[in-house]
């Protein structure tokens, strides 16, 4: 088959044949360069897709972390309210204990006074 491709060149001057050879060499060189660039393009496209996937994964992770953070903040708020309620309840109970302690002391004094009166 190569002979049929070369047949059209028969009878051409050496100078024209030289120019044809130069042009064919240039075509081969350009084809190789095109293949290299195509490979580079495909590699860059693959890298771009990988980066896009990485960005998407990071966005999803960031959204999940944001939701988790919001949930934790709500939990902290709930715990803070519970702590305040417990603190308030504790103050109320301490106040009641203080009052009852005072009543107990007063009752003890009354009992002691009554016992002293009974002894007399």
Automatic annotation (TrEMBL):
Molecular functions per Gene Ontology: dynein complex binding; microtubule binding
Region (Disordered): 99-120
Domain (Centromere protein Cenp-F N-terminal) ranges: 1-120
One record GO biological process: mitotic cell cycle
Comp. bias intervals (Basic and acidic residues): 107-120
InterPro entries associated with the record: Cenp-F, Centromere_CenpF_N
Official protein name in the record: Centromere protein F
Source organism per UniProt: Opisthocomus hoazin (Hoatzin)
